[in-house]
Amino acid sequence: MTDIQKRETRYLLHQQTSFINRYVCLVVLLLMVLSSSVGWADEAADDYLAAAKLYSKGRYELAADSFQSFIKKNPKHSKVAVAQLYLGNALVRLDQRKKARAVLRKFVGQFPTNKNRADALYRIAECSYFIKDYSAAEKEFQRFLKKAPTHEFIEWALPYLGDTQIRLNHPKQAAIQFQKSLKKFPRGRMAEDSKFGLAKSYEMLKQIKKAIKLYQELATRSQGERAPQAQVNLATIYFDQKKYNDAIAAYQLLIKRFPKNDLVPFAHLNIGYAWYQQKKHTKAIQAFKQAAQKKEQAPVANYWMGLSYKSTGRFSVAAKVLKKLYEADSKTPLAKETLYQWADCELRQEHYKKAKELFLKVVSKYPKTEAAAASLHMAGEAAFLLEKTDEAEKLVNQFTRNYPESAMRMHHQILNARVLNAKGGKENLSQAIQLFESVIQQSTISRTRFLARYHLTSLLQRSKKDKQAIVTVTPLTNQAKKEGAGYEFVDAFVLAGNSFLNLKKYKEANGMMAEYLSRLPKGALADQALSTRAIAEAEQGEKETAHSLLSKLISDFPKSKWGVSTLRLIAERAYGNKDFAWSTQLFSQLIDKGTKTTFHPAALSGLAWSQFGEKKYEEAAKTFALFVKQYPDNKQLAPEAAFMQGRSYKEARRIDSAATAFSDAFKKYAPKKAASPQAEQKPPLRYVYLAGLQAARMYRNQKKTKEANAAYNLLLEKFPQAESLDKLLDEWALLNYGAENFEQADKIFRRLIQERPQSDLADNALLSLAESDLLAGKLAAAKASFIKLKTDKRADAVVREVAMSHLVSIATEEQKWEDVRDNAKLFLKHFSKSRRADYVQFQYAEALLHFQDYAEAKKILIVLYARRKALLEKKNVWFPRVWVLLAEIAIKNKEYDDVVKYVEELRAQEDRPTYFYQAEEILGRMHIRKKEFAKAQKVLQRVLDDKNARRTETAAKSQFFIAECYLYQKKKDYKNAQKAYFKVYSLYNSTEWQSAALFQVGQCDEALGNRKKAIESYQDLIKEFPKSKFVPKAKKRLVAIAQ
What we know:
The protein is mostly helical. 76% of the residues lie in helices and 0% in strands.
């Protein structure tokens, strides 16, 4: 039923996705509030505007750098507070929430009276939540709720806090938050999530009736997002309660209400399990058939379908199902069991040859498993049934050699006897007689028969064939009950008692030993009988009686080996039965026997483990420490005890002590030389390795980066070839990444790639290194890595997806439009359904525009435009530029109505983008083309008045076309045109438009008769813009003026 257990993970993933979607909405809302407060009165505001512009373009890395630079250069500027908020949110967009939290915490400390302080408090808590620092998140959400009890974000904060407390295993407190949320926002956007969280809280609190009621309410809302999962959780509760019919009904209701939901196949599978549990195999088969329609769970469903057919006696059908399943994929986790069950179905159909072949295949493929032992035995059985006695004997001998301790040995001995009997011969028959009790059957002498029974019972008992032993010895015990203490075979009671004990028939075992002791209380086997009685009473939960018998055994037979061994055995069984309080008492008694006894180390270890089981972690830690002190050289138990000392402190939440204990354990028992491969997989080095690993992780969790780095370094120095080396290196690198030790993280990632190039984490490491190069401005190195990942077939699809999207963005940044086009096409071929696909499509269209492929660019943009409602809801910063590019294409195609349409639609958007002025500029050019010069100048002036356009190339272009309008008119206005051109030249930093404007200034001078000024303008153009396309024209005009 492992699939049912997955519901918890499904719940957490689903809930996190839901919260993330809401989080994006909150960020956008905050930015709208912030943007309205920005002023532009001073020069520093230019830097601020540049940073905000970068943010609005979605270039969050550069935006973060720019905001940091602005804050550093202008620490007392009025916009520092807002800049810090922008910086925090840019870091959030970069998924650097730990950094974002630090920035926002600093903001809260520096600006305690800022009107946006409550927003920042909320965002701090949210960051902690997403970096899984739930302890901090809990406190921060509580602080926000206390400081801002009427804030609009409370609608999100309450369920967030509740979910945080669920993750901290505080369901009682979580329930309170969800209840508050529902009371305050009964129909709010988070109401359904809150009800689901409340149901989950009740479930964790074992308030099942309340949980069921809420799940039922959620499940009845057919349009509710949580309805399907609620229905599954409801069914799962019924299943866990073994209310299988209720579980089936609940799963069937899910299928009926939500027939297209992804959970439907899961429901069919669990319906099958529920029917199977009730032994209603025909119904189970139908459910498993439906479950098998889902490819991912088809192997499991088909396996259980085969077993269901087998349980109904339809072995032929079962064999076909299992055969098809195995041959489809012989490497699945169920392959071994599938092959074995298939073979067994063939055997039951008397297809002995086929069965033998399949059983031997199990032995060959899985030689070290219990299934192999069972299969070898069954192969021998099949050979025997085929009357191939020599082959059967060969298989029996192979079994004896390879699996002498198998659970099948009882049946194997029977088969061995059958084979020997079939072979014939004096020696073989002699052995068979011993096994088949032929001496007992043939003897005519009573004592001989009883003696044979007695010895056969001993033999069978030593062979652990206790059922046969009891059958064999029963005539002896029946006779012994009629006789007195002097009966020759009174010891049969002890033999029978031992077999009953081995079979866990404790009542019968106790009775047999009592019969013996009633006759011979001081007999030769009295100590053994007392031992068995004490064990039997202990196993039946009669601790007082067991203790009394144990005390009698020790006092009456102080030198008997059974006293101490029984005390130890009962102590170990008490521990095995999780009766830790009793095992603590018994191990303590054993320790009182003295430190010089051979069992003292085991007793001390057992006591420590028992205290640990009792959750007396402080006491356990001391006892484990005592073991290490008294037996530091015990190669097997000392490293284990040292490790468990640390674990005990950890459970006691003495984190510093635990970290120290783990560290000390590792240093004390770490190998002097580097361990060989796989060495850490077996005790005692297993405990040494785990101690080092726990030390490193605990320092990491305590944010003691220096100590954690030292611990990881030492661990890998001693275990450089650990099986999970790649995972350790990845973990270590991520520690440094989280601590912003990026250089160290990159160094470790490089080691991972070098030492485990075939690891499935190597591509992630290379991706991280490439992104580090990208952030460091090493575009060539980053690009080379991204290209390598793009072409690496072993790389995860997600890694290749990210790498290829980076290549598109790098090419766009570099304006290498051929690369943009080629990489975008490749990306869209492989990742057309990626969440990044829309943006790549947009970049692709932008590249096509630069190649003047307007028709193809328009096709792409129109597809995006058709999905505008959904894409606008995602708040993608780039998406409104679709309108801008469509307007640009429309003006190229002289589709002026479309130009107006796109510009006005963009203007009407609630979240109008900061680059809207670009659309206005296109509208202005359209009016010029239509010779509506006054309208053009009015529109273009709006571009200049837009604070977002300040000092931009678009503003320079608009200023240029304002000037052009003066010359396009019938009555050319050279004077005003020249003033307008000069503004382009003097105010903007754009070679293209400055040089064009300066040439036009000279043209106006010529038209106005100012030849001298015209010459100066042309000469300035040649000097200041030597690579401009207007230089040849300027030189030509200078020649013309000179003539």
